UniProtKB/TrEMBL annotation:
The keyword Flavoprotein applies. Keywords: FAD, Flavoprotein. Residues 79-102, 248-262 form the Glucose-methanol-choline oxidoreductase N-terminal domain. This is GMC family oxidoreductase. The lineage of its organism: Bacteria, Pseudomonadati, Pseudomonadota, Alphaproteobacteria, Sphingomonadales. It comes from Novosphingobium aquiterrae. SUPFAM superfamilies: FAD-linked reductases, C-terminal domain, FAD/NAD(P)-binding domain.
Length: 525
């Protein structure tokens, strides 16, 4: 039986940050348990290989049938292996809006206002543009400008400017609104996952991959270890100081429920003895519903499936192997913007991602020819869903129900977002490519547009909220990320966000991992 001071479950964005920080002063024996592998392969590290990431690095979940999406099953990719979702994501570096964190604080997350979290974003970050009041200069997470943005991505930004939408060279600076090229979590032209940033080899940091955590070991109201499966073998690992649960927005509530912590009636229905009734475990699921408009072009500037495209990619792979430059450094979601659908919203409520390729079904369906896509997503959705156990088998996928478009306010916002995507595509210089809309409809007709949205919209991969933080008795963790009603347990990942942030969720998850390390250190001092 192995004995540690702290066990961190999940080597993803937050778990890597937490384990790295908890082990860096050498004073604690830290064990990081990760179900997947090391992810140390060129298919993960080369940004442009994102469509070819190994299947073993992705849980490839599906949702239950979505009423709001004509009964379709949504796709929910999640990273598996060191780096977690930061090893398969689009590398866009965005923190969200000041409003989000001030709202968290107003909801009871004392100590999580924007001014409270900014030092942790800065501490995490090494921005190659240099440090300033908003950015860090010597953190482990490398952030850089894109090495080779596609000419079409620059045209997207120029088309937005032609509509007087305003340029923004730094979405993580003083103001978020506007359009520009995203900064990326890359270093020297390679993907810079949270694992590469934080998991420095150290004698006091044990990293075990291929370790599927089945449940927490709870003794007299305290988490004292974890039961884990390595291949066919089951083991119990002990943690004298406690456990940090960082298995992500689906994995963390699943492990809690398998351990008897969650909605009592649901657990009983699964035949799991109830250790702690907590209705909020697996509840409050929020995710960014997203619609991808897509256009075909004659221009081969864009990525595409053609002889010329394949030849260009082959040369680019060689260039990248030797110099780490060229089109294989693409993050695909190269350009973007934040836009308010009305003057009275507190912050942008639509985010755009411009992709210099025609996307269909999350890139899983090959599209012949060349072209581009514009994602529009609803930044602060009102719909709420759940994660529940589909089975008491820890190796089974959980039942994920984002309940997309349940609240009519979400589709009303999305409609406006999609209409603007099309206005941008029709403005010069993007219009000079003579883009041909792949799904032409009468965009001014609400019923037609709603039908198309319900037929094609899905996630842009930002599920949160399933172990919500708060100061109320019903929240899962308190504002120091400690689980309520049970000792020796902290939760640190996207699941603790009480509200979805207005942006991508990797940097916020890393910030949460950074903070968890400080809270655990303080509690154990
Ligand atoms: C395809 C895709 C594109 C994205 N693009 C972007 C982007 O461009 N920018 C951005 O900011 N965000 C992006 N995101 C979202 C962002 O990456 C995630 O929100 C963030 O990484 C979540 O961090 P986390 O720590 O909560 O969970 P994760 O990083 O998902 O980590 C959870 C870890 O726990 C492990 N785990 C789960 N269950 C168990 C178990 N039972 N036992 C052991 N280990 C377990 C998992 O294997 C995983 O490694 C994207 C996500 C995806 C999937």
């Amino acid at each position: 039986m192995d004995q540690f001071d702290i066990i961190v479950i999940g080597g993803g964005s937050a778990g890597s940050a937490a384990a790295g920080r908890l082990s860096e002063d050498g004073r604690r024996r830290v064990c990081l348990l990760e179900a997947g592998g090391s992810n140390d392969t060129i298919r993960v590290k080369t940004p442009g290989f994102m469509p070819f990431i190994p299947e073993a690095s992705n849980w490839r979940f599906e949702t239950v049938p979505q009423k709001g999406l004509n009964g379709r099953l949504g796709y929910q990719p999640r990273g598996r292996g060191l780096g977690g979702s930061s090893a398969i994501n689009a590398m866009v570096y965005i923190r969200g809006n000041r409003f989000d964190y001030d709202q968290w604080a107003a909801l009871g997350c004392i100590g999580w206002s924007y001014d409270d979290v900014l030092p942790y974003f800065r501490r995490a970050e090494h921005n190659e543009r240099g440090a300033d009041a908003f950015h860090g200069g010597d953190g482990p997470l490398n952030v850089m400008d894109q090495r080779w943005p596609n000419p079409g991505s620059k045209a997207f930004v120029a088309s937005a400017a032609a509509l007087q939408l305003g340029a923004n060279p730094d979405f993580n600076g003083a103001a978020q609104d506007g359009f520009g090229l995203y900064q990326v979590t890359q270093k020297d032209g390679e993907r810079w996952s949270a694992a590469r940033a934080y998991l420095t080899p150290r004698p006091n940091l044990t990293i075990r991959t291929g370790a599927l955590v089945e449940r927490l070991v709870i003794e007299e109201g305290r988490v004292t270890g974890v039961a884990v499966r390595f291949g066919g073998q089951q083991e119990v690992l002990r943690a004298s100081g406690g456990v940090v649960l960082s298995a992500g927005a689906f994995g963390s509530p699943q492990i809690l429920m398998l351990s008897g912590i969650g909605p009592a009636a649901h657990l009983s229905g699964q035949g799991i003895p109830v250790a702690l009734h907590r209705e909020a475990v697996g509840s409050d699921l929020q995710d960014h519903i997203d619609y991808v408009s897509s256009w075909e072009t004659q221009s081969r500037d864009f990525f595409g499936d053609s002889l010329a495209g394949t030849w260009r990619m082959a040369k680019a792979v060689i260039e990248h192997r030797f110099k780490r430059t060229g089109i294989m450094t693409t993050c695909f979601a190269e350009g973007g913007g934040f836009w308010r659908t009305s003057a009275d919203v507190p912050a942008a409520d639509i985010q755009y991602h411009f992709v210099p390729a025609m996307l269909e079904d999350h890139g899983r369906e090959k599209v012949k020819g060349h072209g581009f896509s514009i994602h529009a997503c609803v930044l602060r959705p009102e719909s709420r869903g759940t994660v529940r156990l589909a089975s008491s088998d820890p190796a089974a996928a959980p039942a994920i129900d984002p309940n997309f478009l349940d609240d009519p306010r979400d589709i009303a916002v999305l409609r406006k977002g999609v209409r603007l995507s099309h206005r941008i595509a029709e403005a010069p210089p993007l219009s000079d490519y003579k883009p041909k809309d792949r799904y032409p409809i009468d965009l001014d007709n609400d019923a037609e547009l709603d039908a198309l949205i319900r037929e094609r919209a899905d996630t842009v991969y930002h599920p949160v909220g399933t172990c919500r933080m708060g100061s109320d008795d019903f929240s899962v963790v308190d504002p120091t990320l400690k689980a309520r009603g049970i000792d020796g347990l902290w939760i640190a990942d996207a699941s603790v966000m009480p509200r979805l942030v207005s942006g991508n969720t990797n940097a916020p998850s890393i910030m949460i991992g950074e903070r968890a390390a400080d809270f655990v250190k303080a509690a154990l001092a």
